[in-house]
Write a structure and sequence with these properties.
Elements: H1 25-37, H2 55-68, E1 72-76, H3 79-89, E2 97-100, H4 107-114, E3 118-121, H5 133-139, E4 144-150, H6 159-169, E5 172-176, E6 184-185, E7 188-189, E8 196-200, E9 213-217, H7 220-230, H8 237-240, H9 257-288, E10 294-295, E11 310-314, H10 316-319, H11 323-332, E12 347-349, H12 359-362, H13 391-400, E13 401-404, H14 413-428, H15 430-439
Parallel strand pairs: 2-3, 2-4, 4-5, 5-8
Antiparallel strand pairs: 1-9, 6-7, 8-9, 10-11, 11-13, 12-13
Helix pairs in contact: 1-9, 2-9, 3-4, 3-7, 9-14, 11-14
The structure holds pyridoxal-5'-phosphate.
Pyridoxal-5'-phosphate (PLP) binds at residues 78-80, 104-105, 107-108, 150, 176, 178-179, 200, 202, 213.
């Protein structure tokens, strides 16, 4: 008789994990107030008092800047648009190279392409999955203008080494901290270590307004450029008297008053939500880390982790089965999560495929059909997106890393115990999986 659910045995748990539902009465009341005003957005796309948006947008920006201890916070309609604003504002030009992490959501790299720069992928750190400083240094050429670092899974990047490298080579650092709101490195928050930091407020993030993003910086010029790009720069610069016209093509990246008022409520909840998540992760890291084939995530010294994803390494040589077989068996023991039922059990083998392996990079087709941006008279380099250019990220993604999202509140230690029991059950019955592997 088989014991494991994947072979027909009983599951460890049937009842769905509870939804991460962080919208409550506060948000409802705040939204009702905005609706009553009839003014759902107040932006004007020309040089005017309303160029900077309405009351809620401005209040959110003020509160965000205070919370994070920065001079400027700029609300936008997504982290993606925030990244685009940042690259544009930094004056990145056609044919420039931008060094990017391959282990991130696709927009971190697309931000370079949007301004006709070429993304160059450096490898990640074996322990922390963020960009590796030595790999960055190997990739720097006379064309390199910026580094887009990502605080992946919620852990701040290596600020000491990478900021020193950037200073040495006169590079701009754009910090994609979509996954790390409230995480810290030393005395400062993630997102405030780069020249620009970009947060996300999309539905999947720690706090959200449905869609949305906030960009932060201490640099007055970058801030003003980003405000221009957010709101139809080209029709504003004349009347405003803006001197430099570099990248002053504007977009509509404006956040509505409704999203802004929700985001204000959400910011107040961040600390509490984050503490519970961190507590669940700590509990789980300790328990799962005791399984000989599982390595709990390390936290960089002097940093805190905000655990957008709770990531582990799986050592197939110790288990005697490969990661995917093992995780498939664990998933068979567990239920889905409320509101996200169609995604199934929220445990993933790897994260997203290393970005350079996506078709756009493999075939080098972005603007038009002739390979523009990757090749052309504007670019005197030759970029390489072959499999093997970043061996660490490939090994992590395809063989070792797995991550889950069951640590989001209101899940409790008791819920975490079911997760632990599922892993232990599969660990103890791994011979069943080996037998299945052999017979395959
Ligand atoms: C979610 C995410 C983004 C994009 O955020 P949006 O607000 O959906 O545009 C960018 N980078 C990373 C690392 C993310 O996790």
């Amino acid at each position: 008789m088989s014991k494991l659910a994947i072979n027909g045995g009983p599951k460890v748990r049937e009842k769905l994990f509870p939804a991460y539902k962080v919208i409550g009465e506060e948000e409802k009341e705040a939204v009702a107030k905005v609706l009553d005003t009839g003014m759902l957005s107040r932006y004007l796309g020309c040089w005017h008092d309303d160029f900077y948006g309405g009351e809620q947008v401005r209040a959110l920006e003020k509160e965000w800047a205070e919370y994070y201890g920065v001079k400027h916070a700029i609300a936008v309609n997504s982290c993606t648009s925030g990244l685009y604003c940042a690259v544009g504002a930094a004056g990145i030009e056609m044919g420039d190279e931008v060094i990017v992490s391959p282990y991130t959501m696709s927009a971190s790299a697309t931000a370079a392409l949007v301004y006709n720069a070429v993304p160059v992928f450096a490898d990640i750190e074996e322990d922390y999955y963020c960009l590796d400083a030595d790999s960055i240094e190997e990739r720097i050429t006379e064309r390199t203008r910026a580094i887009i670092v990502v605080d992946i899974f919620g852990l701040p990047y290596d600020v000491d080494k990478i900021n020193a490298l950037a200073a040495k080579h006169n590079l701009i650092v754009i910090e994609d901290c979509a996954q790390a709101p409230g995480a810290r490195c030393k005395d400062r928050f993630a997102g405030t270590w780069g020249d620009v930091g970009v947060y996300s407020l999309n539905y999947h993030k720690h706090i959200h307004s449905g869609e949305g993003g906030v960009v932060v910086t201490d640099d007055d010029d970058l801030a003003e450029n980003m405000r221009l790009i957010r709101n139809h720069a080209e029709s504003v610069v004349g009347a405003k008297g803006t001197k430099s016209l570099v990248n002053m093509i504007g977009f509509n990246y404006r956040m509505t008053e409704i999203e802004a008022t929700i985001a204000r409520c959400q910011l107040k909840k961040l600390d509490k939500l984050l503490k519970k998540r961190q507590d669940n992760c700590k509990y789980l890291s300790n328990k799962l880390g005791e399984i000989p084939a599982i390595v709990a995530p390390k936290v960089r010294p002097d940093c805190t982790h905000s655990y957008y994803k709770h990531s582990f390494k799986f050592k197939a040589d110790i288990a005697g089965v490969d990661r995917n077989s093992f995780i498939d068996a664990v998933k068979a023991e567990l239920p889905a999560t409320e509101l996200r039922e169609i995604e199934g059990v929220l445990i993933g083998c790897g994260y997203v495929k290393p970005i350079y392996l996506e078709p756009m990079y493999q075939q080098q087709i972005a603007y038009g059909s002739n390979g523009f941006t990757f090749v052309g008279p504007h670019y005197n380099g030759k970029v390489n997106y072959s499999r093997g250019i970043c061996p660490v990220v490939e090994r992590m993604h395809f063989e070792e890393l797995f991550c889950h999202e069951m640590m989001r509140p209101p899940t409790t230690h008791k819920d975490m115990d079911d997760l632990v029991n599922a892993f232990y059950k599969v660990w103890e019955h791994r011979e069943e999986l080996k037998a299945a592997e052999v017979s395959r």
